[in-house]
Amino acid sequence: MLTAADLPHFGLDGESFVRPEFAGRGLANVAPTVLRLLAPSAEALELPPLDGSVLPEGLTGDVKTVVLVVADGLGHLQLEREIAAGNAPNLAELIARADQADACVAYTPITSVFPTTTVAALGSVNSGVAPSHHGLLAYTLFLPELDMVAEMIRWGPLNRRVSFADPEFGQSPEAFFWAETTYARLHAAGVERTFAVNPSGFSGTALTRMLHQQATYAGYVSTSSLGPIVSRIVHDSTEPTYVYAYWPTVDTIAHVVGPLTPEHGAEVAGFDFQFGRLLNALADRHDTLVMLTADHGHVDTLPEDAVNFADHPELLGMLRAIPAGERRVVYLHPRDGATQDVAAYTREHLHTAAATMLRDEAVAEGLFGPGQLSVRAASRIGEVLLFPRGALQLVTPVESPDGNPMKLPTFRGLHGGLTADEAVVPLLAVRL
Predict the structure, then answer these.
(1) How many whole angstroms separate alpha carbon 302 and alpha carbon 393?
(2) Does the domain made of 4-300+419-431 have the CATH classification 3.40.50.1580?
(3) For residue 362, which of 24, 59, 194, 367 is within the disulfide window of CB 3.0 to 4.6 Å?
(4) Which fold has domain 303-414?
(5) Average pLDDT over every residue of 255-281
(6) Are 71 and 45 spatial neighbours (Cβ–Cβ below 8 Å)?
(7) Which residues pair with 10 in a beta bridge?
(8) What pLDDT was estimated at residue 2?
(9) What mean pLDDT value characterizes the chain?
(10) pLDDT of 104-135, one tens digit each?
(11) Per-residue b/e over 187-198, b at no fewer than 16 CB within 10 Å?
């Protein structure tokens, strides 16, 4: 079985990071796999499907239904720890079976996209393109077309609790997303049964409108309902079917309480139990492939060790916008002509906290996917990137419209960067 150590890495200023994979062992290869299995006549995507070392051909013959379960925030290393602690017996048994030659199960760690954050990763899961091609390039982004830093899950100004879809802005979430969704591609190829199973509260939100265009939305109030809903959808028809099912609460617990806590173990145990029930409910559907993955993992952080950009007014004065991106990878947008000055400042004054990388260097490493960045993608990223060392987090001060500093949330688990904790996610495939 391939391991996390087999994934590509790159070095930066004495640190080693995971390089996102787009050639067959990455999260962005999942949607091309769904298309190949359910709609082989569909127009091919630039990115290939999952490699045979990740998803063996023996598991994919005559598949008519694909169920993709995404456990938000459940990184490969977290899953390994919880299996060792006895908190995931169903997943442990499945992964153990993956070593058997005639197994109907495969398990391989794969890489997330960059940055390792929900909007970027789910953008790729739901389109089959790299973040640079769908435009959701971080949790917070400087949007030149609106001349402001935005929060992308809510899809609105970072410092106001409104949405760009509101009448004040009148923007279209569907148009903002640059890529065609997996559901739309399946429909164009004649596969009509496509479903997104998500919390009921997500229905109609801007991000849902972007990511799930042309999917039939199936909402749930409690995560325990995810399995019954998926089972009902699958059993309702023998027509080709794609079901995307999202479990959000491992991520919530990791952020708020921490990824190394008993609470995290209890949440993974709850997910493991429900995933086992789902497989049992689908056991009679021998034309079905169930895949389990995650958008990212978590690094355990200490909020009191955060480095705040408010302590670096000289740096902030060289920027055209406040630092954006993630607390675990920061995008800096220097004023015209100030790129080298900004890089020099961070290398001198923030060297112990973060490694500095120019955007062109990140492109050369292939962090954003194959090929060059488009002008519009580059404008959202900024010219200088910062990768926090160890488990540090970099915090951006935010002012409310009246000029007062806003209270920022504290986190015990974070993601966005390219450490193995954040960037390596599971890919479990079960042929029923």
Answers:
(1) 8
(2) no
(3) 367
(4) Gyrase A; domain 2 (3.30.1360)
(5) 98
(6) no
(7) 17
(8) 65
(9) 96
(10) 999 999 999 999 999 999 999 999 999 999 99
(11) beeebebbbbbb
pLDDT over 70 (residue 1): no
| Measured distance CA(49)–CA(29) in Å, rounded | 5
Judge whether residue 66 has pLDDT over 70: yes
Query: Residue 150 in contact with residue 61, Cβ under 8 Å?
Result: no
CB 111 within 8 A of CB 19: yes
Kind and range of the H or E run holding 245: strand 241-247
Around Cβ 349, how many Cβ atoms within 10 Å? Answer: 13
Token pair 């079901």 is found at 243
Angle in degrees, CA 295, 122, 279, rounded to 5: 65
Domain residue limits, the chain = 4-300+419-431, 303-414
- The distance between the two most distant Cα atoms of the chain, rounded to a whole number of Å, is 65
Question: For the chain, what percent of residues have pLDDT higher than 90?
Answer: 94
Asked whether residue 194 carries a pLDDT value surpassing 70, the answer given is: yes
Please tell me the distance from the alpha carbon of residue 180 to that of residue 332, in angstroms, as a whole number.
29
Identify the pLDDT of residue 6.
84
The reply to whether the predicted model has a pTM over 0.85 is yes
CA distance 385 to 320: 15
Q: Which amino acid is at 401?
A: P
Residues sharing a CB contact under 8 Å with residue 203, sequence separation 6 or more, in sequence order? 217, 219
- Please list the residues that pair with 430 across neighbouring strands: 105, 290
Hey, what are 85's tokens?
């602690």
Distance from first CA to last CA of the chain, Å, rounded? 21
Average pLDDT score over residue span 135-162 = 96
Alpha-carbon distance of 40 to 34, in angstroms, equals 9
What is the rounded distance in angstroms from the CA atom of residue 421 to the CA atom of residue 399?
A: 31
- The encoded tokens of residue 160 equal 């106001």
CA distance 11 to 21: 16
Same fold, 4-300+419-431 and 303-414: no
